[in-house]
Amino acid sequence: MIASTRPKITVVGAGHVGATTAMRLLEQRVGDVVLVDIVEGMPQGKALDLLESGPVQGYDCQIAGTNTYDETAGSDIVIMTAGLARKPGMSRDDLLKKNADIVSGVIEGIAPKSPNAIIIMVTNPLDAMAHLAMVKSGFPRERVIGMAGVLDSARFRTFLAQELKVSVENVHAFVLGGHGDTMVPLPRYSTVSGVPVTELIAPERLAQIVQRTRDGGAEIVKLLKEGSAYYAPSASSVEMADAILNDRKKILPCAAYLQGEYGHQGIFLGVPCKLGRKGIESIFEIELKADEKDALGKSVKAVEELVQVIGLR
Ligand code: TXD
Predict the structure, then answer these.
(1) DSSP letter assigned to residue 177
(2) Whose CA is nearest to atom 3 of ligand 1?
(3) pLDDT band for position 67 (cuts 50, 70, 90)
(4) Which has the closest alpha carbon to 230: 134, 127, 86, 108?
(5) CB 72 within 8 A of CB 285
């Protein structure tokens, strides 16, 4: 790997999400990448293949593949995608214990080598795995961030843009809560060029779109039959990494460890966060209506059950 002053990003897990994330990081010139996996030769092979794309794509960003953590030392960001993906009929929660073992091992190995890194968690079940990563790394909450809301709102935006036949760029969506069946899309804060979608789409139709958003992950699992989504998940992870490394102060929905925000304490939950070079620089609180508060409360319960199973609460 040619030494450089570019940011260093470790991607753990060189599977569907991890390899695609690495590709996007290079193509968008976000930084140099170290790709880690337990399968011998696989991360090395994918990294070399991606390095050889540089002359054609016109990037000088470097990438190396490895089966150990030595080369990850001094990373600015660690994007954690290692774990098992859902199979058809398997809920995110079924993955809990297996992925908890994987996350514990990886974070305990990697955090001491990159003590100043910001961790972006991707492994499911997302909110519980982010909590575990924070505990195992000992990092402050600003530096452990879960990727889910960017993906969930990207799905919501896609469906809204399709429905209204407008550019996705004009559609902003707001999604709170846990990643999963209890996510809380907020239609009244979701807008097309500033106009709330509640004024543009009839309530019954909007409810269908909200439901499709909630089931967005499962819809893809069902079609693929093996494995789960990875193009939109990788795009979402890279948007977060780019917002952090380029200190963009972007407001993105991320899973963050709440310390009283939205009336909840000691739990990871999807909320709007300002992402900059320090990681989560602030959490935005908005007023929720009673039914939205209830929905968020259900989300908290679902996440709490998971963290209890892995002994974090
Ligand atoms: O919104 C979100 N947060 C998500 C989460 C969106 C999409 C996928 N989401 C979850 O990401 C999914 O449920 C899984 O838990 C992870 C990874 O999904 P992916 O589709 O990339 O799974 P793959 O293709 O099976 O890749 C996982 C890789 C695979 O190559 C394993 O060999 C590797 O992880 N793996 C490890 N690498 C390093 N270290 C350890 N211990 C390890 N264990 C497995």
Answers:
(1) B
(2) 122
(3) very high
(4) 86
(5) no
